[in-house]
């Protein structure tokens, strides 16, 4: 949306900015580092290659928020009986609120679950991917 003469109060930073006095742009406020480092989240080492290339097994980590139910589409850590694994979860428009679980490497092997079954197996939702850039530091080498 374009406006000819838009002026914002000086305390409107973080809400929007005027770009050369013509266009109003929205900006999302920064997330404070304290929120990421809080005790609310857990770091999970990605161990399998099932979510590659999104998350690399043996190299990347996922920052998880513990959840006990479906919180919207995203990547979730599930307790699948034989261990924990990550799945991309999306809605299935089946009239029953079903969910579709898939993994990047095995797209043809998607699984449909009811919300109740999903809620019984879910451990957490991925809120951030942690990509390893220099493994030496994580291994304590330098």
Brief digest:
The chain is mainly beta and 142 residues long.
Overview of this structure, please?
With 142 residues, this protein is mainly beta. It is 11% helix and 34% strand. It has three helices and nine strands, in the order E-E-H-E-E-E-E-E-E-H-E-H. The strands form two sheets. Strands 3-4-9-5-6-7-8 form a seven-stranded antiparallel sheet. A hairpin with a 4-residue loop joins strand 5 and strand 6 (84-91). The longest helix has 7 residues, at 115-121. The radius of gyration is 20 Å and the shape is globular. The protein starts with 15 loop residues before the first strand and ends with a helix. Mean pLDDT is 83; it is low at 1-8.
Residues in helix, %:
10-25%
Please state the average pLDDT score: 83
> Could you give the distance between the termini?
52 Å
Biggest sheet: strand arrangement: 3-4-9-5-6-7-8
Query: What is the number of helical segments per DSSP (H or I, 4+ residues)?
Result: 3
Percent strand equals 25-35%
Provide tags for this entry.
globular, two-stranded antiparallel sheet, disordered N terminus, seven-stranded antiparallel sheet, 3 helices
Could you outline the blueprint of secondary structure elements for this entry?
Layout: E1 16-19, E2 23-26, H1 33-36, E3 42-45, E4 61-66, E5 74-79, E6 84-91, E7 99-102, E8 111-113, H2 115-121, E9 122-130, H3 135-138
Antiparallel strand pairs: 1-2, 3-4, 4-9, 5-6, 5-9, 6-7, 7-8
